[in-house]
Amino acid sequence: MRPLLLSILLASSIGCATGTAAQPAAAQSTQPESPPKKFQMRTYYMAFLRRGPAWSAERTPEAVAASEGHMANIQRLAACGKLLIAGPFDVGANPPSDALAGIFIFDVPTLEEAVALTQTDPAVKAGRFTIEVMPWYGPAGLTYDGHEPSKPGVRCEP
């Protein structure tokens, strides 16, 4: 019994050390591995949001409404597949009045479309943010864990 137990332990430890478990030949995949995807770059449009002339830290009803509209706009643009990534910067204590506030990364064909989409943001319309949009050359297929693809039928117009 002892030699059999030692043989089983030795076989399983070899499988663990090599990162493979002993499998019957029929269970192993015979499909050829697909070639790795070739890395490619493409143009996106990155929008830099800065604190605008109407920005304040006060939580007034107008500021709350602009913030809620800003977040709803982000969700709408993401749902229709135009906005890939959005997020704020941590500006720390006592930033300048025109501090960078956040970014948008748009997946659209032209700079003009990206600029037009930024103008649909209620916080931009209210002057809480100003926007500068620039072409950005990044990896094709840009995504992140948890990213939901665009939903069919969602309109990008407000």
Task: Describe what this molecule looks like in 3D.
This protein has 158 residues and is of the alpha+beta class. It has a domain of 99 residues: 2-Layer Sandwich (Alpha-Beta Plaits). Helices cover 30% and strands 22% of the residues. The chain has 4 helices and 4 strands; from the N terminus they run αβαββααβ.
SSE topology sketch:
Blueprint: H1 2-18, E1 41-51, H2 61-79, E2 83-88, E3 100-106, H3 111-118, H4 122-125, E4 129-139
Anisotropy-based shape: elongated
What is the level 1 CATH name of one domain?
Alpha Beta
Rg, Cα atoms, Å: 26 Å
End-to-end distance, in Å?
Answer: 75 Å
- Please give the number of β-strands: 4
CATH architectural name of one domain: 2-Layer Sandwich
For the largest beta sheet, what order do the strands appear in spatially? 2-3-1-4
Q: What structural class results from the helix and strand content?
A: alpha+beta
Give the DSSP E fraction (strand runs of 2 or more residues).
Answer: 15-25%
In a nutshell, what does this entry contain?
The chain has helices at 2-18, 61-79, 111-118, 122-125, and strands at 41-51, 83-88, 100-106, 129-139. By secondary structure, the chain is of the alpha+beta class. The longest helix is centred in the middle third of the chain and has 19 residues, at 61-79.
Identify the notable features of this structure and list them briefly:
158 residues; Alpha-Beta Plaits; 4-stranded antiparallel sheet; elongated
